[in-house]
Amino acid sequence: MTTLTESRRNMALSSSQVLTPVKPILRKPTRLHDKRGRESDEDDAEGPDAKRRKTVVFDESLNMVKDFCSRSLEEVKREVRLALERHAAGDDEDYDNLKEIFGSDQKSRSRPNSDDEDEATRSQDLLAYVVALTSYVPLLGRKCSGLVTSILKCSWLARDDVFAKAYIQFLAALCSAQGSYLTQVLSMMVDQFSESRIRTPPNCASVSTETMRQRLHMGLRYLLALFPAARSVLIGIVTSKFPYSEESKKVHLAYVDNLLRLRKHTPEVDRDIMELITSRVVKLDVEMQLDLEDADDSTTAAVMSQLRSESNGLLEDDDLDDSDAESVLSDASDLDEDSARVLAIRSHVEKLDAILDTIFDLYSPYFEDPNSPEAISCYEDMLSDFSNVVLPTYRSRHSQFLVFYFGQKSPRLTEMFVGTLFNIAFESNRPSIVKQSAVAYLASFVARGARVTGDQVQTIATTLLNYMNYHRHNYEPECRGPDLRRYTQYYMNVQALLYLFCFRWRDLIIDSETSRVDYDDPASYLGQDHDWMLGLKQGLTNNIFSKLNPLKVCSPGIVAEFAKLAHHLGLMYIYPRLESNKRIQLSQFVGAYSTGGALRDTGYDPQDEKWTHLDPYFPFDPYQLPISRRWLEESETYVPWTSIPGLNGVDEEEEDDDERSEAGDVEDEEDEEDTATDDEKDVD
């Protein structure tokens, strides 16, 4: 290390005025001994002016050396002061030496330490300069930004506790005296959030990652307590520095862990932090879904199978977790396109899975008593993030299971979730796309939520029926046929009810003689007459056979399953309606009626009617992430799809013959293909 020359130092000491150093702010000085062995309380007799002139002092517990290269700490302070003063006057030699002292901390050593002064600075030497600079932060103005930048690059987290505390003192003093550096200081600290491992400087004892993170947040907590206005600045920084989706799982987990620590010690930023994490989880979720859709089914199945087998084998080693996929991804130029896609899918799945597992674990303690004020308040916050971030995002696949899982902890929480969805789905001032999404969430939650009660199922089914009838009465007088663009909200309600029926039909039966059936044996319900929920049968009949013709617009898969169940359970027989719908060409109708034929200019296939059907999006379809799925499996809160035993064995050919015979009269009467503009018989 290059030091200032002795002669230059002596000349400066004889001609310069000693500046008053700033008072230490991290801790109050204790009773200390000076170099002559006298206790500090002797100095107390010198009066308050003497106290104000005191510099940062260290007791024996700080293990601070009093001599530095044959100089006392006071001499180091004089060196620092003179270097800063001369830099202000245009002489940069000593100032550049200070920059080199801190810059050497970033350089790797190519040879062992020796007695040569040009060797990298030892930790105790660097500590002396940090303490000295703390005393003269008023001199570190804009002209000293280069030195400040070098200091902020110092490996302070990986050194000992004494250095870390002294460094935090310096940061606090710097921000207090030079407020323009606050953003730069906070940015430096947030940069450490992504570090899963920090290099230990030479000649320093190894420090654990946990210890480094504790020191980092001790500094953050102290700065935020001193400067409350810095919280908004910090939120902007942590948002901008959140890892890109291409970053590794380790980087994401390290960053999220540090965000959660920040949230814990600074509750004022709690909502901002959780909304940020939620938004980035949703982004990862959507990107993962796009990756899965781009890959073929066999590739997706292979990736998921491998991840499940690894999770079942209790693969706990982080190095083993990440090394294979990420090391290969780093050299993606050597991979073919298919292999690169597989590794990208695996990387996205692992990151999303690990973060969601962390969040499930974070929230669980709040719901040990699900009716407590803490649980209610926590779930309200979760619903806020869900409403603002998750629900409006199309293709979100797993992020929403947080509100699904915790919403079933108690009936009150279930009602909170259902009430939120109802408010969004049926408020007139909401965007149409958001209302449609809310209806899909509502139907999917009721269908898949194992702890949603039968009474709640009937209440929600009744509400959907009421809105269906309301829209039907408004739309039908001017309706010429099924039109998804004009009546989207109506069709969403119908599809939601059909989907709900397919899963929860047993809860819609109100048989008084329960001895005839066994709730746990769906096959016992077949071939019997049932008393259905009031208004269900008539309401479905009125809507299905109306001019709006929802069965033509709803997802064919859902319609087919509903038709089969409704027939064998004795609710209604709709196969003739389905057969007549085959002769209705929606694309021809929509092209002429809704767009004046403009669709013909877009190159669309007039025979492909997929775009005229509702998307079968139900956001609580089976959870696929291999590790975090344990929360749903262990709690038994999820209803998987199960068909009625024996129902799928029905002779489909015989059923088709029945359909054709009942629809034969219509076919014989018509020689040309029907269109959606044909009048439909109203059942009302």
From TrEMBL:
<feature type="compositionally biased region" description="Acidic residues">
    <location>
        <begin position="315"/>
        <end position="325"/>
    </location>
</feature>
<dbReference type="GO" id="GO:0006361">
    <property type="term" value="P:transcription initiation at RNA polymerase I promoter"/>
</dbReference>
<feature type="region of interest" description="Disordered">
    <location>
        <begin position="313"/>
        <end position="332"/>
    </location>
</feature>
<feature type="region of interest" description="Disordered">
    <location>
        <begin position="1"/>
        <end position="54"/>
    </location>
</feature>
<dbReference type="GO" id="GO:0001181">
    <property type="term" value="F:RNA polymerase I general transcription initiation factor activity"/>
</dbReference>
<dbReference type="GO" id="GO:0001042">
    <property type="term" value="F:RNA polymerase I core binding"/>
</dbReference>
<feature type="compositionally biased region" description="Basic residues">
    <location>
        <begin position="25"/>
        <end position="35"/>
    </location>
</feature>
<dbReference type="GO" id="GO:0005634">
    <property type="term" value="C:nucleus"/>
</dbReference>
<feature type="region of interest" description="Disordered">
    <location>
        <begin position="642"/>
        <end position="684"/>
    </location>
</feature>
<dbReference type="Pfam" id="PF05327">
    <property type="entry name" value="RRN3"/>
</dbReference>
<protein>
    <recommendedName>
        <fullName>RNA polymerase I-specific transcription initiation factor rrn3</fullName>
    </recommendedName>
</protein>
<comment type="similarity">
    <text>Belongs to the RRN3 family.</text>
</comment>
<feature type="region of interest" description="Disordered">
    <location>
        <begin position="102"/>
        <end position="121"/>
    </location>
</feature>
<dbReference type="InterPro" id="IPR007991">
    <property type="entry name" value="RNA_pol_I_trans_ini_fac_RRN3"/>
</dbReference>
<feature type="compositionally biased region" description="Acidic residues">
    <location>
        <begin position="650"/>
        <end position="684"/>
    </location>
</feature>
